[in-house]
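The authors assume throughout that readers already know how a fold can be written as discrete tokens. A single example would do more here than another paragraph of explanation. An entry of this sort, consisting of the sequence and the corresponding backbone structure tokens, reads as follows:
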Amino acid sequence: MTWYIYRLLAGLATLLIGFGAGILIRRITQKVLRNINLNKTAVRVGLTWNLEKGISALLSFIAYALTIFIFLNQLQITSVVIYLAVLGIVILISLSLLVAIKDVLPNFWAWFLLRHQIKIGQKVAGWDKIRGVIIQSGCLETRLRTPRGDILYVPNYLLLKFMRPVTFLHSLKR
């Protein structure tokens, strides 16, 4: 039990020293890069980024990451934390993809079903007062021109669900 306390104390000392070194690296790097006028040189070349701040932040981030890795290694839990971090990243990416495609898939499927049924210039009506002429149809949305001349962007799944072709010309007039 005491060996674990010694490892924990050594790990905490490593964290303090490593984070202090990271701060020191950032400040020294910024001063050195400022003395050689890196940002002014970059502006002459056409770069508008603050390279002095960016490079020093990157170097301090590397120092912080190495410090955390050494700390975890001293506690002998590096592999567990890396596996958990990778698992968290995979879950985060998966959830992001699900959120990103939640609107794409229904609209694409509706376009697939509607692609032979709707034509440019066709009059459609739906809901209570929405009427228009199809001026463009894409795989995610369809553009309608209303009798007033407004352009509506209607998602294809709503077009499939609520809009119907209008066969009488007088139904588009006010």
Notes: The chain has six helices and five strands. The chain has two domains: 2-101, 107-172. The two ends are 85 Å apart (CA to CA).
